[in-house]
Recover the amino acids of this structure.
């Protein structure tokens, strides 16, 4: 892994844990710590775009309270929705 890619992954893990909403911080922070290293660069692009979505809306997509619009449906969102964190 290149230094630039490693730095990008590290920043995404941090951003995931500090989104602004505690529930989303827990879900995405734990997801990122467990899966970010295995995501491809394309998937990292998608994940980064998801982090730009306002927390309440993204939380509803992840928890199944709402269906994400077609342009946000992806293998990455599916991975996040399927992620089960057991503390």
């Amino acid at each position: 892994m290149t230094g630039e890619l490693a730095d990008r992954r590290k920043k995404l893990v941090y951003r995931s844990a500090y989104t602004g909403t505690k529930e989303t911080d827990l879900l995405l922070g734990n997801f990122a710590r467990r899966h970010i290293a295995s995501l491809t660069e394309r998937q990292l692009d998608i994940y980064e775009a998801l982090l730009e979505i306002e927390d309440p809306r993204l939380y509803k997509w992840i928890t199944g309270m709402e269906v994400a619009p077609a342009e946000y449906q992806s293998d990455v969102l599916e991975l996040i929705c399927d992620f089960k964190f057991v503390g």
The chain is about 65% helix and 0% strand. The chain has a mean pLDDT of 94. Helices lie at 3-17, 22-35, 41-51, 55-63, 75-82.
